[in-house]
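By convention, each integer encodes one residue's backbone shape. The lines below illustrate.
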Amino acid sequence: MRLERNQEWIDRMKNSKRLKLTTMQAFTHYQIVFFFLFIVLLTAWNLFEIYVTDTYSGVRTGEELLIVALPFLLLAGLFAFVQHRRLRFKEIDAALTEEQFQEVVQRTAKDLSWRIDKNNNTFFRAHRSWNWTGSWGEMVTIIKYKNHLLINSICDPDYVSSIISYGQNKKNIDVFKKNLTDVLNNTPIEVKIEKVNNEWSIKRMIIRLFAYPFCAFLIVFGAYMLVESSTFNAMISGLVAMVVAGVYLYLDMKILATKTKDK
């Protein structure tokens, strides 16, 4: 039964060219969306108390609550769109034998420290673990059919929820495609010198240029909600916002400190 279900999932992914996730994987993948929606729902409950049950005990008006909730609703929609797009497979035209395919994945697994979990004649899955690269790890899925390969790499939904891989998802696919070209061209394996990830690259600094102020906003907003709000729901929203922003800042600064120390 399990084998039949797995084949059914593979067939669905072939037809839709989208990665299918289990319920828990989907929850982790879309967790950032649920976080923002949670805040919106708390505000919606306050609006229900104002306009329906007349039991609201807070100090804000309905208009003020709507103004507070709107940015979080927009962010939920934005991240839902982004995370939905990330489930699409990239299609590669490649007529290769099983032996050639195995050579490609073995080269890539060695280059990127993939942990291969499933590897058969139609389906391949590997995970890359967290190793201070800025990403919590990724899940790579490859489906083989006819003369095509479908490949997808997302932040690992079996681990900690993450919306930024700092380029690792793109790297997983790019290195695989390079090794695929090399194998098809009978190019021997290169002796590679390990490249140290630059945490101070322009790309990563641009990400932090937006992420740090946003986290600061969440912390200030959360503190304001804790101090000024008179409702339990608003206080919980503020606390959650502060915790999420604080954890991200702590982990990212820890990565920077570790990289700097290792130089």
Q: What stands out?
A: Strands lie at 90-93, 114-119, 123-129, 137-145, 148-155.
